[in-house]
Amino acid sequence: MEDQPTRIMLAVNQSTINGYPHASISCRRAFEWTLQKIVRSNTSGFHLLFLHVQVPDEDGFDGSDSISASSDDFKDQNPRYNSRGLQLLEFFVTRCHELGVTCESWLKKGDPTEVICLEAKRVQPDFLVLGSRGLGPFKKVFVGTVSEFCAKHAECPVITIKRREDETPEDPIDD
Amino acid sequence: MEDQPTRIMLAVNQSTINGYPHASISCRRAFEWTLQKIVRSNTSGFHLLFLHVQVPDEDGFDGSDSISASSDDFKDQNPRYNSRGLQLLEFFVTRCHELGVTCESWLKKGDPTEVICLEAKRVQPDFLVLGSRGLGPFKKVFVGTVSEFCAKHAECPVITIKRREDETPEDPIDD
Predict the structure, then answer these.
(1) Where is the UspA domain (chains A, B) (predicted)?
(2) N or C: which end of chain A has fewer CB within 10 A?
(3) Is residue B27 in some structural domain?
């Protein structure tokens, strides 16, 4: 079992403040946390799986199959390269490539909560890491939390990483 | 930051079927999962913190301070060694010692849900690992789930590891 790397799935999304192709503050935090606290120096022991779920018709893109390893892989995706979702994934894949952590990434369309749970069931990662804005109960009612839904419904273990307070924008609903 | 090991807190409890001093199926599963999927070969990168919360007056023991490193440390706990909780902790500390993973363990008294959250706040681990029996919603109503409460209320990230189906006893409420 030690031969097979631990497969960690990260659901990543785009920022609501800075516009495309920036990753949201909370998913960047979840990613950095995973590297610092779990992967650490054991880069060969882990394999990261990046999923981005696009809301249908967001930019007229139909999803992509798995893309691995390095940012060069994204160059071959022309003319689909225009997709903002692919640019988001490239951010994470490039960072993994620099660090020597193997990874895969792919895009899906649909309701993020449902698609994340479905993909977790299909891909069967060892666990799922989700970023969260860490909103209080009052704010949550209006915003909805993908992480809470997935923590409850995903078939694999889920760990939710809250956005750091010093990274919280003026309006905490922004991310 | 890489110099400091990742501190993982595990709340461990006793079996309801085999009697003392056995660890419950679900907490043993959470422990083995942590070793296999997180610690892996990077034994110096992690520091485990074992907490056992005893229900008050369970065996007339008043709690212990932190005990580290090896099973020999438990020998010095005489005459408190009779405590079943200490024997439970010895199981985990001995296993860590064999593997070369540093650890600490301690006992507290009280309501497990509250004490786990309070201790997580005090000790500030990087994350908390909890075992769960993985009962369906119907069974949960009658049993209550420590893991669900802590996942919601602990101030650190929480990952819940379900008991494996092939380890589930005849009555799934047993553990």
Answers:
(1) 24-162
(2) N
(3) yes
**pLDDT string in tens for chain B (175-residue length):** 457 999 999 999 988 876 556 899 999 999 999 999 999 999 999 999 999 998 876 555 566 666 666 777 776 665 554 477 888 899 999 999 999 999 999 999 899 999 999 999 999 999 999 998 877 666 665 555 788 889 888 999 999 999 888 888 888 778 8
Has residue B173 been placed in a domain?
Answer: no
Q: Is B151 on the interface with A (CB under 8 A)?
A: yes
How are the residues of chain A apportioned to helix, strand and coil, as percentages rounded to the nearest 5? Answer: 40, 25, 35
CA–CA gap between residue A96 and residue A35 (Å, rounded): 9
Q: From start to end of A5-110, where are the E strands? A: 6-11, 46-54, 64-68, 102-109
Answer yes or no: is B78 within a domain: yes
Q: Which residues contact A16 (CB under 8 A, 6 or more apart)?
A: A24, A173, A174, A175
Q: Which of B132, B137, B170 is nearest to B151 (CA)?
A: B132
Measured distance CA(A154)–CA(A136) in Å, rounded: 23
Contact at CB, B1 and A38, closer than 8 angstroms: no
For B36, the closest chain A residue by CA position comes to A2
